[in-house]
Structures are given as C-alpha cells and as structure tokens.
Amino acid sequence: MSGEIEFRSDVTVELVRAQATDRDVLFAARVSTVGEQSLDSATGDTAELAKRDRGLINYLMRDRHGTPFEHNSLTFYVQAPLFVFREFQRHRMASYNEESGRYRELRPVFYVPAAERNLRQEGRPGKYEFFPGSAEQVDLVQTEVRTQSEAAYASYQRMLDAGVAREVARTVLPLNIYSSMYVTMNARSLMNFLSLRRKAEGSTFPSFPQREIEMCAEKMEDLWSQHMPVTAEVFQANGRVAP
C-alpha cells in the first residue's frame, strides 16, 4: 500500500491570490456617472473610505445593483472530500481546476465525520432538521467509514500494482476521499455562494447547507472579509442577500 491511510474531519481553505478591495466596487460603480474620473476611487487605503463611499457600497448592496461587485478576483485553494466538490460545482459562476485521478495516484486521505457532527435527519423534504447522533451511532459511523475506506484503497492499490490504469483503478474509491482544487470567483459570485452555503444569523432567506461545504464557506468568508471588509459588512447588514 502506498503510504499510510490518513483520516481527517476538517477542510483546508487558503486564499492564494486576491485582487479584491472595497475600492474596486467604487470605481466600477462610479464609471456610470463620472466616466474615467472614477479611477480616482481605485487608489487609497480601505480604512480611509469616506462616509459617502461606505454609503454607496451599502446602497448598491441594498438595492441589488450587482455588477460593481464583479470587478475583482479571488482564488482559493481547497482540500475537501470529493462529495463537497460536487456541491461546489453546482455553482457555475466560478472557475474550477481540480487534481486529476487520471494523471496522479490519489493519496490515501479520507474524511470521517467528527463525533460532534449531527448524524440524524428528521422531517420532510425542504423541512429537514439535523440532530446529534447517539454514542452508538457515532461509533458505527466512525467504524464503517474507516473500514470501507481502508478496503477501497487496498483494492485501488492492488489494481495499480497489477498495471491497471489510474483512471480505471480509481472507480473503486469512495466519495469521502480528499481532493484538491483551485476556485476562482468574484465577490458577487462569492456572496451568492455564501448566501446558500452558510446557515448564518441575520439571513433574509435562511439556508440549510450540508455541514462539510459550510465548513469551506466559513473559511472562505473569513478570508474574503479581510480584503473587502466594508462589502462583507454591508452584505451581512442587508440580510446576506447577494446583489
């Protein structure tokens, strides 16, 4: 077997490139009224934003004038289980590049739910609620996930050792194997993603995301808000409705 199997209950999110500030929103918005003079809004420290600048960003968010929030770019590096990536890629306003199981041998890193992760689902479609599992359920989930992951990776290795192509051998691997990818989006797209993938207080339209993608969304929002603090603030203040 190639390497020792690793089990994780977390995700990795890093902001590897950001061309995104609150001033990007201002110059994009003001071109409609002052033309090339709007470039004056593109320079300076975010901390020095005038009250009218903050008011403009709030107005754009509140009245859902969305395009000024598109003139920026954020690239995140994400490590998460494969089933999380399939949820990411339902958001078609981002660009994705994922590691390939055709071109590299996949590492034996698997997701196992942490003991505190809710395990029981109750209710009808659209009205689900999730609750903690019993000690017996937690033990069952941990045991079964670990056992099946180990068995699947051993099968994968046996096929690779026999000369089977990686793209064929990977068919036995489960959805909880970790993958990695780059995700690039602008702030408007990110706010749309966050509005759906975080269960957050103050949301006009509450969302009920799967916990594992919410873990990614929490980290992404924290990193983004460091670069566009005013935009993040008014996003929250206006009910977390993407403009």
From TrEMBL:
Its cofactor is FAD. Binds 4 FAD per tetramer. Each FAD binding site is formed by three monomers. Keywords: FAD, Flavoprotein, Methyltransferase, NADP, Nucleotide biosynthesis, Transferase. One of its GO terms (biological process) is methylation. Its EC number is 2.1.1.148. The active site is at R197. Gene3D superfamilies: 3.30.1360.170. GO terms for molecular function: thymidylate synthase (FAD) activity. It catalyses: dUMP + (6R)-5,10-methylene-5,6,7,8-tetrahydrofolate + NADPH + H(+) = dTMP + (6S)-5,6,7,8-tetrahydrofolate + NADP(+). The keyword Transferase applies. InterPro entries: Thymidylate_synthase_ThyX, Thymidylate_synthase_ThyX_sf. Pathway: Pyrimidine metabolism; dTTP biosynthesis. DUMP binds at E87, F88, Q89, R90, E98, E99, S100, G101, R102, R170, R197. Catalyzes the reductive methylation of 2'-deoxyuridine-5'-monophosphate (dUMP) to 2'-deoxythymidine-5'-monophosphate (dTMP) while utilizing 5,10-methylenetetrahydrofolate (mTHF) as the methyl donor, and NADPH and FADH(2) as the reductant. Belongs to the thymidylate synthase ThyX family. This is Flavin-dependent thymidylate synthase. It comes from Gulosibacter sediminis.
